[in-house]
Amino acid sequence: MWYHSGMFEDLLKPYSDASRYFVVPGGLRDVHVHFRDPGMTEAEDRRSGAAAAAAGGFTCVTTMPNTTPAGDSPAWLREQIDDASLPVRIAPSACISKGRLGKEVADLEALAAAGAVAFTDDGTFVDDAHVMEEAMRRAAKLGKPVMQHAVVPALLAGGVMRDCPVARQFNLPVMPPAAETEAVKRDIAICRVTGCALHIQHISCAGTVELIAAAQREGLPVTGEATPHHLLLSCEDIPADDANWKMAPPLGSPEDVAAIRAAVKDGTLGIFATDHAPHPAAKKMAGFRTSANGIVGLETAAAITWHVMVRQEGMSPADWAARWTTGPAALIHETVDADSFTVLDLQANKAVDPASFRTKSTNQPFTARRFAAWPVLTVLKGKETWNGRDVL
Predict the structure, then answer these.
(1) Which of 137, 169, 198, 308 has the smallest CB count inside 10 Å?
(2) Number of neighbouring beta carbons within 10 Å of residue 11
(3) What confidence tens digit (pLDDT) does each residue in 310-333 have?
(4) pTM exceeds 0.90 for this model
C-alpha cells in the first residue's frame, strides 16, 4: 500500500476516478535505455532522452555505456549523473570491459565508487569467458549486477532476423535461437561459480525463458527483462524489408512471444525494459541487411505493456506495476521513491504518433497503432515533470 499522506492531494485530485486512472507509486523505472550522449547526439542526448522518459511516465532510467567514448570511466559516469535539472533521474550502468572491446575488464571498483549501478557491454556480447568470469567475480564483491547482451557472435553469423516469411522473401540472413540460448547457458554457468547477480537483457527466445526459470529454481541470482516489442510483436508480423522493425535481438516466433508473456505473468521475468535505441532516419533507411539495430520505446512502453499484459493476458494491474517499479529497483539495489509517482489514463485510447515524440528519433514499428492506457502525469521527487501535454 502506498500512503501519500495528503502531500499530493491537489495533484491527484483530478485523477480520483479509480475506474479511469491508475496511480503507480514510485513512478516507472527503465533499466535499459540508450541516450547516445556523448557521441551520437543527433539521434538523442540526455535532455531529449530524459524528456521522452518523463512523457512515458518514467522517473528513473539506467543508461547504457555504448557511447563514444565508451562509458568505462568515472568521468563518463559523472557526466551522466550530474545534471539535476533533467526531468528524470539517471542511474547509469558502466562498461564490463575497457572500451567495450571484451578484452580486459574495466576498473569496476572505480566505476562503482563513481556511481555505476550495474555493469554491461550492451550492444556487444562479452565473448571471452575468462573476461566474463573475472568481471562477475569482481562485480559480486561490489554487490553489483552484470547485465548481458546475450548473442554469441559466431552463432549469430550476421543474422538480422529470425526465420519468417520476410526473411525467406528477401533472402535475409537468419539468427538462430541458439545464438541467444548458448550465450545464456554459458553465463548461467559463470553465475553458478561466482555468485554474481546476472541479468539477461531483451529476451527474445522461449529457450532463454526456460534457462532462466531453471536457474531460478536452482536458487541462482538470475533475472531477465521483457521489452514491449518482444511482448507485442513476432517475426511473423514484419511486413517488409523495413528496418523500423529491426532490433537486436530480433523479434521471435509466435511461440517465443507466448513464452515471454507467460514468464512475465508468472514472475520468471520480473522486469520490463524498453531498450530505447534512437537512430537518425538515415541509419534506418537501407533495409535489414545494413541498417542500425534498435527502436525507440520510452514514450510507448506503458501503453504497449498495459495492452499486452493487462488487457490481453489478464495480468493484475499491481503485478504490471511491479514489473516497472519494484522489479527494476531491486535489480540495482534501490527502493521506489515515496515522493514520486505516475498516473495512467486507462481510457485515453490514443494512436502512436511520432510527430508528438519528445525523443529526437522516430524509428519504431508502432505508428498508428491504438492503445488505451497512457501516462498523463509524472511526478519526480515531488516535482511535476509531465502533465499529459508538456514536459515541465
Answers:
(1) 169
(2) 16
(3) 999 999 999 999 999 999 999 999
(4) yes
